[in-house]
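Input protein
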Amino acid sequence: EIYAELKKDYNGLDFNDLEKYALKILENEKILNSLKNKYKYVFVDEYQDINSVQELILSKLTYNNKMVMVGDIKQSIYSFRGAEPSVFAQYRKNYMPAESQSENSKSASSVFMSENFRCSPNIIYFTNSINSCSLFNYIFIIWYVAIVVPFCICPRSKVTRCNSSSYCVET
């Protein structure tokens, strides 16, 4: 109650208020249709950190449009501020990987990228171990695979081949 009073006194809004007002604005069919017609595609990054209100906003804006969602439920770290990884997990549950679908079987497809080029195999193993106990594991089983690309660090000004199995990278 004190927080609400302070917002009112200072004529302020927080992010939750902005979400609530965005939904209210989208109740106006003219505004909603204008926005839906303006954007052919909607791209959402870090989809694992979305909440149900944001999902509702997106579903209103993307009805009959195309939405691309990118995220990794194992990287969801914002539940303390309302993120609901279950929203993303539900999409994962509803749509099989793209390669197992026929062209007209569903209105959406999923592409799973489990290969990781940025982390060592030890980090990948640790991440998979931690997430095997995840609350969402029963819905969202996807294991990372470490792809080891040997690099050497050298003081050259461009990327060149050092030998048959590694590349030099400018530091």
Observations:
- Residues 149-157, 159-171 have pLDDT under 50 and may be disordered.
